[in-house]
Write a structure and sequence with these properties.
It contains 15 helices and 24 strands. With 497 residues, the chain is of the alpha/beta class. Among the domains are: 150 residues, Rossmann fold, CATH 3.40.50.12780; 96 residues, ANL, C-terminal domain (GMP Synthetase, Chain A, domain 3, 2-Layer Sandwich). Strand 12, helix 11 and strand 13 form a beta-alpha-beta unit. It is globular and about 65 Å long. The relative contact order is 0.09. The structure holds malonyl-coenzyme A and adenosine monophosphate. Adenosine monophosphate (AMP) binds next to strand 13, strand 18 and strand 19.
Length: 497
Amino acid sequence: MSGNLYARFERVFEANAARVAIRCGDGTALTFADLARGAARYANALNALGVEPGDRVTVQVEKSIANVLLYLAVMKAGAVYQPLNTGYTAAEVSYFVADAQPKLIVCDPARQAEMRALADRHGVFAVVNLDAGGAGSLAAMAASMDERHETAARNADDLAGLLYTSGTTGRSKGAMISHGNLASNAATLVELWRISPDDTLLHALPIFHVHGLYVALNTAFLSAATMLWFNRFDAAAIIAALPGATLMMGVPTFYTRLLSEPAFSRDTARKMRLFISGSAPLLAETHRDFAARTGHAILERYGMTETGMITSNPYDGERLPGTVGFALPDVAVRIRGEQPGVIEVKGPNVFKGYWRMPEKTREDFTADHWFITGDVGTIDATGRVTIVGRAKDLIISGGFNVYPKEVEDVLDAMPGVGESAVIGVPHPDFGEGVVAVVVARGPLPSEAEIIAGLSSSLARFKVPKRIFEVSELPRNAMGKVQKAELRRRYAACFGEG
Ligand code: MLC
Ligand code: AMP
């Protein structure tokens, strides 16, 4: 039997052919048969463009149904899906393309010329496009293709995805994720969270990261759940749709935004079976406020790009605010030495290593092959995990990761900036907000000018929302910048957080 995850989806799609797979806000709906036909057409288009098993396909497009078909098609064709945040600038994309060496780039039509130039520089065979409405040169090509396509045979260890995560120092790393990694994690979550064809999953997450892509899509496809489709998160639209949903997955910002809407009530959530939160810490206070408003205890789980999901609060047992629950049934977690300590993970969910970076891969695994997450936590006698901090210098803003070093490097290269320290402080909407503290060397541009300057090379979510000037950065005896001290100093700069 093929280890290609799409082969498993294909069986589900066939068995549920006439049922609705995805329902969109404009009333349009796709059946599972439509999904299978669309994926086949797109896979034939990919093959016609020269894509073969093992080739990387770089995708930077707005969320759409066509994007879902493309995701399925890449897997069906046995190729490796490399999704990129739509916020990334051309400079950022350039690195990913140079590193991944894709056969094909799929981009927004507005970026076709820019991507074509990039493709020429890096020997990429073809560039095609898809717009926010799902139209574009790839969609046109797929429409003319046969709706039959033989799913490429793959082994469970073959790559299905290449997802980049930034290193705390140095270059961004491509996490190599196999069909087996995805299949095991999706099957485990479907069972644990009891996802079934009776479910309607409200999908409002982006599909270029693990949460919206692998956790939400793969579990829905495997269980034949119906999805209610939103191209972005808009609290009012979500509240209007919630009475028709049974299941939702979101980052903590989704839940705080829902709570800030007076229209969000117990009645709105009357059909809901389960709210799931992850990608960033959910404040215990949000958990409690949500329970008081809706009667639902949000189920918090913990994961990473490199591992998929690691722990989850229980479906039946107590969902304890401020904790991330227990290791998934087929996953093991441990902390060596004293607690709190760095969480390590082992299981069929753990990725195959960093793309063409054997050294970095070695650094992030222990001698006995456990993956070192960089998250600091505790594990109690019952196995319940609580995350208390991070050993890695990382900010998580609204569920997006920001690596201070990357922002500091761009800041330090700006005229007038001597040195800088980038930190995350409590933010009422994004959980953590990015702040830069800079020491001037000569005349320092204004805050607005610095922010505008950074935005030309960095995605908007990475750009500090505030810039503070100081005469010197606080350092310890070793000369290391004391970021904890800076976080204390600017803790209230976004209000009480
Ligand atoms: C948008 N902005 C952000 C931001 N999102 N700034 C900081 N952090 C963010 N996350 C900027 C915009 O560019 C804009 O700035 C301004 O904030 C206001 O934008 P908005 O319209 O309010 O934002 P919105 O489109 O509503 O997006 C907010 C959001 C979105 C929370 C809905 O960020 C989101 O979908 N986040 C989900 C991230 C996610 O899926 N993470 C999963 C990672 S997987 P300006 O200046 O441009 O006007 C993972 C593993 C695991 O971590 O365990 O799941
Ligand atoms: P990413 O590299 O984007 O996959 O982000 C993974 C990181 O998100 C983890 O290493 C954690 O730091 C963080 N994370 C994910 N889920 C949670 C959670 N429930 N609570 C706290 N942190 C989380």
